[in-house]
Design a protein that fits this description.
The complex is a heterodimer of chains A (249) and B (304). By secondary structure, chain A is mostly helical. Chain A contains 12 helices and no strands. With 304 residues, chain B is an alpha/beta fold. In chain B, strands 5-6-7-3-8-9 form a 6-stranded mixed beta sheet, sandwiched between helices. Classes of the chains: A mainly alpha (249), B alpha/beta (304). Bound molecules: adenosine-5'-triphosphate and magnesium ion.
């Protein structure tokens, strides 16, 4: 509990996490508002593929916040003060992951429900209501989606330790590499099904005709995709923590 | 209180700390002396469990650092005043540190008051002068009211007023019966505050003991000799069992652990002409440089 409180103080006593979180929420809510404004009055039901694209932008910003929360500690050597105060590095890093994860989950939920409320406000179409499982998943699913993405980003931050490197890696990977792998002839379609962010998107919008048209038929069901990415994130976090325990601070 | 046994740290090709064994007695101020790159900071990081020793170990009160519960309550340290986030206030920095070790929030205000930062506690640490950063670092070290304190070159870069403040502070900590282990490359600084000294060079122990003893054995122990037959002179002095160091820069020999009388008699017995025979009445600083220089010379000689 005390470690969580310490990490919370650390995260929120500088301005950039506030800004990143606010920007993430604004991106999603603003994007969905624009989408609604440019749509016909009978907008519904929720265009889950499009909303998942906006959520991805917000998610990327939250991932930057998550990874930077680790790399600034290395940048200013406060990680040394942290490990000096808490020699159990595993506990210290898990506490940080938990705090960042909670913030990411809240950011995901606020932005998704905020965006959805915005659409409903601008286009009061009863068809926009959250009725089916897929619709709930597309909106409330932003919570777990942002959570696993943030855990991945924290793990990358612990491993890379440098802000520029970690942020570049995450941005290039999510916004470029996965899309490029998808279009590699022959092997592309085999590999991309197992890429983390493709699976997060499959969790948010999977099962809809739009997704199958955009990314093809996925091997995993939406919920299996989430479980798979969660396992990946957990695995990478274990690797990162083991590495941090072995290395000099 | 602090017990280092065979402590060794290798960074790639650099052997930063080499089989270093020393102990710091409880309730003393012990100076940790060595020239730049001697391995002082590396040793301190290993004491705090930040860097893993390649070999050996160091214990505090019989425990490895990682075995301490709430270590800030046992060991306080200031290794580098710049280890703070420039956009975080002094108060927030101390608040999160306090939480990790279950220290009451009131303690944060107490230590801010002790180091005189109360007025600026809510300002971003990036706006602080070096002296203020140093005070923040000391506040962090005092947070858990620890019995043991480590300071790495605390007076480095400070103005005379700041140096004076730190010096008085250290003396006060000693009066309170705490164990203080403080590094420096200035023997004169340590002579003012430290009762014991651990002296290292090139990662190895040079000497350990009371400051007064080190100063005595170091200063005035060197006899400087010059003359036309230095090579032969060095040979006969060594045959007589004396430690002789060749100092080409001054075209002289430095003989330690002897007297001008003894060296003069040996020279006369061998019929060697002397142009100078004098005792180097060196200051503490010179003595220290002499000793660490010998170590450096010895190392380069050995690897060549
Ligand atoms: N993280 C590191 N990686 C590689 N080499 C290092 C590292 N830390 C220290 N060294 C090397 O180890 C040696 C000892 O360095 P250290 O900083 O411990 O010396 P020091 O006695 O504190 O010196 P100074 O008086 O300059 O602070 C130096 O040669 C240094 O270059
Ligand atoms: Mg140093």
């Amino acid at each position: 509990m005390n470690l969580l409180a310490a990490e919370r103080i650390k995260l929120f006593s500088t301005r950039s996490p506030w800004w990143c979180t606010a920007v993430a929420i604004a991106l999603v809510v603003g994007g969905m508002a624009l989408l609604a404004a440019s749509a016909p009055a009978d907008i519904g039901p929720i265009p889950t593929w499009v909303t998942s694209q906006f959520l991805q932008f917000g998610m990327v910003v939250v991932m930057v916040m998550a990874t930077v929360s680790v790399t600034t500690e290395y940048r200013f050597s406060t990680i040394r003060t942290t490990f000096q105060a808490v020699p159990n590095r595993t506990a210290a890093l898990l506490a940080k992951t938990a705090v960042v994860g909670i913030v990411a989950t809240i950011a995901g939920l606020v932005s998704a429900f905020g965006g959805w409320a915005m659409m409903a406000l601008l286009r009061p179409d009863p068809a926009l209501a959250l009725t089916t499982d897929a619709q709930w998943r597309a909106i409330a699913g932003a919570g777990p989606a942002f959570l696993v993405a943030a855990v991945l980003a924290v793990a990358v931050g612990i491993l890379v330790r440098q802000t520029a490197g970690a942020v570049a890696l995450l941005l290039v990977w999510t916004l470029l590499v996965e899309n490029l792998i998808r279009v590699i002839p022959d092997v592309g379609p085999l590999i991309y099904q197992w890429l983390p962010f493709t699976n997060i998107m499959n969790f948010l919008a999977g099962g809809s005709a739009d997704v199958e048209e955009e990314v093809g038929v996925m091997a995993l069901t939406p919920w299996a995709s989430l479980a798979y990415v969660a396992a990946l994130a957990g695995g990478l976090l274990v690797v990162a923590i083991v590495t941090a325990n072995r290395r000099d601070a | 209180m602090i017990e280092s046994v065979g402590l060794t740290k290798r960074y790639g090709a650099t052997l930063a700390v080499d089989d270093l064994s020393f102990s710091v007695r409880s309730g003393t101020v012990t100076g940790f002396l060595g020239p730049n790159g001697a391995g002082k900071s590396t040793t301190m990081r290993m004491i705090l469990g930040l860097d893993r020793p390649t070999a050996g170990e160091v214990r505090i009160g019989g425990k490895l650092y990682r075995e301490l519960t709430h270590p800030l309550r046992t060991v306080g340290a200031l290794l580098d005043a710049k280890w703070v986030h420039p956009n975080r206030s002094a108060r927030s920095q101390l608040r999160w540190m306090a939480r990790t070790n279950r220290l009451p929030e009131a303690r944060v205000d107490e230590v801010l008051d002790i180091v005189g930062l109360t007025a600026v506690a809510r300002q971003r640490a990036g706006t602080y002068s070096l002296g203020m950063s140093q005070r923040l670092g000391i506040a962090g070290a005092l947070l858990g009211d620890p019995e043991v304190l480590l300071f790495d070159e605390p007076v480095n870069g400070l103005d005379p007023e700041g140096i004076h403040w730190i010096r008085r502070f250290m003396q006060q900590l000693a009066r309170e019966g705490r164990t203080v282990f403080v590094s420096s490359h200035l023997l004169s600084e340590m002579a003012l505050t430290a009762t014991d000294l651990v002296v290292i060079g090139r990662g190895r122990l040079i000497s350990q003991g009371p400051t007064a003893e080190f100063a005595d054995s170091a200063s005035g122990a060197v006899v400087q000799v010059r003359g036309p037959h230095l090579g032969e002179l060095a040979d006969v002095l060594r045959q007589a069992g004396l430690a002789v160091v060749d100092v080409p820069a001054e075209a002289a020999l430095h003989v330690s652990g002897s007297s001008t009388e003894h060296v003069g008699e040996i020279a006369a017995a061998n019929g060697l002409v002397l142009h100078e025979l004098s005792r180097r009445g060196s200051s503490l600083e010179e003595a220290f440089m002499e000793i660490t220089k010998q170590d450096v010379e010895y190392v380069t000689g050995a690897t060549a």
